[in-house]
Write a structure and sequence with these properties.
Elements (H helix, E strand, L loop, with lengths): L7 E6 L4 H12 L2 E7 L3 H10 L5 E5 L5 H14 L5 E4 L14 H29 L2 E6 L12 H20 L5 E7 L7 H4 L6 H4 L5 H13 L4 E3 L2 H10 L4 H12 L6
Parallel strand pairs: 1-2, 1-4, 2-3, 4-5, 5-6, 6-7
């Protein structure tokens, strides 16, 4: 992929659908070439869509819950030989039902995707950004990270980690020109609730946010160098309440949203 004089390079993970797809689409429309990654074959189809927007695009199909999968993505970035101007670490996985009823291999994959693969990728690309004192990092956390996640305990725990990690890394880099932004969406109209087996829950059946709007909010926050962005006024109210309500009350509220069968 040769560079055009005016275009920058963005790496977007989880880009085959949902918020990640919309983030990559915004980047392509805003003058970025792309390296996009996901763990399913649709990544090749969406790459063609983004090329039609004028972007040079390289796609990587890899399991980003593994270091080998992240290494495959990093190898593609090195092969291109261009600096990464923006890293949008969006790849994530959810899992519903009570923790004791979950398959542990599936629960571990949530942790490995949301946390381990994310911080491995951020460290590798972030080191290069720091070395040249330029770059933007977006980490997709969630308002779920503010609440004890009854019937979604592992997922909410991983998002709490990412929210905290983003602020810590941002502070570590405050004397550089590398920025870190945490995008914290609420329930969004994506495949998440199907894949997490949560369609029969109250939150799964409810009206959700538009992923294109969420992505635009996040992109703008990243380009402005903001530390965080909660997308949507309802989600802002939720996070404000979460900062003052007792954890037990928050867990009970989450139970009403996420307990299997609560949509009925």
């Amino acid at each position: 992929m040769s560079a055009s004089p005016e275009r920058r390079l963005a790496v977007v993970t989880g880009a085959s659908a949902g918020i990640g797809y919309e983030l990559a689409k915004v980047c392509a429309g805003e003058g970025f070439d792309l390296v996009i990654a996901a763990d399913d074959a649709r990544i090749g189809t969406v790459a063609e869509e983004f090329r039609r927007l004028g972007a040079r695009v390289e796609e990587v199909e890899a399991d980003l819950s593994t270091t080998e999968g992240v290494d495959t993505l990093l190898a593609k970035v090195r092969e291109i030989g261009r600096p990464v101007d923006a890293l949008l670490a969006n790849a994530g996985r959810g899992l519903g039902h009570g923790f004791l009823d979950q398959d542990f291999a599936e629960a571990r994959k949530v942790v490995d995707t949301n946390i381990v693969g994310t911080i491995y990728l951020v460290q590798a690309i972030g080191r290069d950004m720091r070395a040249r004192n330029a770059g933007r990092i977006m980490i997709v956390g969630s308002i779920a990270g503010f609440m004890p996640g009854s019937f979604q305990a592992v997922y909410n725990g991983t998002k709490s980690f990412l929210n905290s990690f983003s602020f810590g890394l941002r502070n570590e880099l405050k004397e550089t020109d590398v920025t870190v932004t945490c995008l914290m969406p609420g329930a969004t109209e994506t495949e998440f609730f199907d894949e997490a087996d949560m369609k029969d829950t109250s939150v799964g059946a409810s009206e959700k946010d538009d992923p294109a709007k969420v992505a635009r909010d996040g992109f703008d926050a990243m380009m402005n160098g903001e530390g965080d962005r909660v997308s949507g006024w309802k989600n802002k109210l939720i996070t404000a309440a979460a900062s003052v309500l007792p954890s037990g009350m928050l867990a009970e509220q989450h139970r009403k949203m996420s307990k299997p069968g609560s949509a009925n």
